[in-house]
Specification:
Shape: elongated
Strand content: 25-35%
Structural class: alpha/beta
Strand order of the largest sheet: 7-11-6-1-4-5-12
CATH architecture of the largest domain: 3-Layer(aba) Sandwich
Largest sheet: 7 strands, parallel
Number of helices: 8
Number of strands: 17
Distance between the termini: 56 Å
CATH superfamily of the largest domain: HUPs
CATH topology of the largest domain: Rossmann fold
Number of domains: 2
Order of helices and strands: EEEHEHEHEHEEEEEEEHEHEHEEH
CATH class of the largest domain: Alpha Beta
Radius of gyration: 21 Å
Length: 322
């Protein structure tokens, strides 16, 4: 029997949306290992409402890590990891920063960007994309603890049918460690736009949009689709300075798995496909009928985005009764 540790990210005592997925994966592994699920949240104990929500997602208890730098958190996690059969992180920006540090301290392998995880016998088996998403590798993690980071927006995070209860909290001080930098504060993005990696709908534009001045038609479609939609962009667009890096979708940007993905004036280079090909439904609009994006699209429109997208926006608003 072995417990599983879910490392979740939070802001001011409230876990991010990916936390439920991390806990869900930890719960699945815990069933196979015959143990329970503990949640570790850097920055202090989550507020009571958040603890109840984590309990509904499958957690049994909370380990609160004191507010300190990433090196201190990594040291604290490495210190307690021996209690667990597996440790699950999110493959987000903070997760990609923290998980390798813990793995290095433990001298243990780390399976990253995992899209499926299970227990076979007493060992964790993880599935992860390789070769820019063109193939999937099944990795058997021998020994304990098994370390893995999961791709966001891939795993279902069901709620418990029974009301959640407040979880017991174990306080764990994270040691102060030497670092070459320090966090001096946090500043929200202008407009507090929905993060592309957490959106249910993504409207992405490519170099075929011509210039940053034409992004207004994509914003109109995003607004027509509602609050669940966010803007994305290809690497070429970001490199040209048209859009911020926070919107970049692709191998060197963010991996997204929305329910609906619009690839507008995007040719479909393998670098971009690696970040969005696992989306639920993909709609592509491109003037080139031979564009690679049509090879992964569920619906493809060969046409000019400046003619097609405004009509899409108008039709969406009509169907929503606006």
């Amino acid at each position: 029997m072995a417990d599983v540790l879910a490392v979740v990210e939070g802001v001011k005592g409230s876990p991010r949306s990916v936390a439920r997925e991390v806990v869900a994966v930890a719960r699945k592994l815990a069933r196979g290992l015959g143990g329970g699920v503990a949640v570790a949240m850097p920055g202090g104990a989550p507020e009571r409402r958040a603890r109840v929500g984590l309990g509904e997602a499958g957690a049994d208890r909370v380990i609160a890590l004191g507010p300190t730098g990433v090196n201190g958190v990594a040291a604290a996690l490495a210190g307690v990891a021996g209690r667990f059969g597996a440790v699950v992180f999110a493959a987000t920006g903070p997760g990609r920063d923290l998980a390798p540090r813990v793995a290095a301290k433990l001298a243990r392998p780390l399976a990253t960007d995992v899209t499926e995880a299970e227990v076979d016998g007493a060992e964790v088996v993880a599935t992860r994309p390789v070769f820019a998403g063109k193939a999937l590798a099944r990795v058997r993690i021998k020994g304990a603890p098994a370390l893995l980071s999961i791709r966001p927006n891939v795993f279902a995070a069901p709620r418990s049918e029974s009301p959640g209860a407040d979880l017991p909290v174990e306080e764990l001080a994270a040691p102060e460690t030497e670092t070459r930098y320090r966090v001096v504060g946090f500043e929200a993005s202008r407009g507090a736009a929905l993060d592309v990696s957490e959106a249910a709908i993504v409207v992405s534009g490519g170099r075929g949009m011509g210039s940053p001045d034409n992004w207004g038609i994509l914003e109109e479609l995003r607004d027509a689709l509602g609050e669940a939609a966010a803007l994305g962009a290809s690497r070429a667009v970001v490199d040209a300075g048209w859009r911020p890096h926070s919107e970049q979708v692709g191998q060197t940007g963010k991996t997204v798995t929305p329910k609906l993905y619009f690839a507008l004036a995007i040719s479909g280079a393998i670098q971009h496909l690696a970040g969005m090909r696992t989306s639920g439904v993909i709609v592509a609009v491109n003037r080139d009928a031979d564009a690679p994006i049509f090879g992964v699209a569920d619906y493809g429109i060969v046409g000019d985005v400046f003619e097609v997208v405004p009509r899409l926006s108008a039709e969406v608003r009509r169907l929503r009764g606006e």
